[in-house]
Design brief:
This protein has six helices and no strands. With 173 residues, the protein is mainly α. Helix 3 packs antiparallel against helix 4. The radius of gyration is 32 Å and the shape is rod-shaped.
């Protein structure tokens, strides 16, 4: 083969390779853009469907935090006897029952939020148990007084969780 034939072959081959490369690049970026557009449209449709469910879950967890707030809880649940341990077990059972009723809501809220809610529930239970062990507490009514007076000095665990829930809901917009 002489050099003119090689130059002639290269003169046809190089432009076709460049055209093919440009076409590949354009088609590839077009298809990626179409795929991203479809994904965005699916997410948009899903958000429209899931946002009300997520908001409902946050509402339910807000209600749960309000219901286990010791100031609300101890007023709502009156002692059935004077025994402080019996009353403690009854109150804790109510908190656990309320928590179990809302377990499915964790699907719609973030893991961090669920952890904070669980920690608030456990802290509330711990607060009640510690007050039960106090020497000042002899009966169920004194237990209620001690827990409520402790809340005057410090914030309830559910208040911090409520603030976190409100912040997270604010980020949904």
């Amino acid at each position: 083969m002489d050099s003119t034939k090689i130059i002639e072959i290269l003169a046809y081959t190089i432009p076709s390779l460049i055209t093919g490369g440009v076409a590949y690049f354009l088609f590839d970026s077009y298809f990626k853009d179409q795929q991203n557009t479809r994904r965005w449209l699916l997410q948009k449709d899903n958000r429209k469907d899931t946002l009300p469910l997520r908001l409902q879950a946050y509402e339910r967890m807000t209600l749960f935090m309000e219901r286990i707030n010791p100031s609300q809880l101890l007023i709502r649940i009156t002692p059935i006897s004077n025994d402080k341990n019996e009353y403690t077990n009854y109150v804790i059972a109510q908190v656990e029952q309320e928590f179990e009723h809302n377990l499915a809501q964790q699907i719609y809220i973030s893991d961090e939020c669920w952890s904070i809610i669980t920690a608030a529930k456990n802290a509330t239970i711990q607060m009640i148990r510690l007050a039960t062990k106090s020497e000042k507490v002899a009966n169920a009514n004194q237990l209620r007084e001690v827990v409520l007076s402790d809340l005057l000095e410090k914030q309830s665990p559910s208040s911090a969780a409520l603030a976190f829930i409100k912040n997270e809901v604010g980020q949904l917009w």
